[in-house]
Model the fold of this input.
Amino acid sequence: MSAKRILILLFALSLILSGCGGAPNKEMHTIGIIVEIPWLSPVVDNFKTTMTELGYVEGKNITYLYDPNVGPDQAAFDKEAARLMEANVDLFFTVGTMTTKAAKKATEGTDIPVVFTPVINPVAEGVVESIAQPGGNVTGVQIVDHSAKALEWALKIAPDTKYVYIPYNPDDTITMLIMQGVLEAIPSLGVELLPSEVKSVDEMLAVVSALPEDTLIFVVSPISSLETGVEQLGQEALKYGVPIFTCNREINTPPFPISNYTVTFPGEAQQGAQMVDRILKGAKPADTPVETAEYYLDVDLKQAQAFGLQIPDEILNQANIIVR
Done:
């Protein structure tokens, strides 16, 4: 057989194998997105931005199916996950615990991946089997609660503090998960927790005018039903001269807190997008370890000076962002 004939046969064989030998990578990926609460919606924009940077261009090689008005309960998220399954999504990107559980339920018995962010304690929530080996089709980015550490930072900046006001609604399930760690830490921090249970934004704000001297306000994240009052709380704190500190992930309106120790929407979204990219390229969720969202310390020197507080160099040297 001539060399030319052999080359022709090899070329024909390569065409046959490319057509029949295993499924090629899809040119278009469809991702279903479900967000638990509107407050978390910026994660979606940041997620899409990172995906674009990774080479996924919307309308060209990726499609996003996302309804920002879904919720607010588990039944609604279950319904949305089922709808997205009918739309033949290739992967779920879920923001929140309830949405992740909905996607996991909807994809049961399939190999459709689910990538989540942020979920607190995904093992205890039954989302994954373990952090190192998630098992199944679900993995993502977890949040490890650092609220107690954030309060420690606040007390280092305001060492003369005797009382702490931490507004929270006991009916907010996710908030209560965060509060557990803070409440356990209070006795060892040498301060007294003032009555902090409130049922509404108005009730939260009304407390500020009656706070005793040497009190600081500390805002955890998320505070769910009270979230819409965070800006007003900052204004009341400034009005009555009560310093305010937070571990609230996104506060973009003045007055800003003196310090903020938290994860960020862009950071979580970037980690989630990078994980989605790896999975779309062939990585298995079962073998892709759950990542932990990174925390950042921001301090505002202007706000500190307004309350007569000097932030030590020890803290400034560890801050990720310093507002001067």
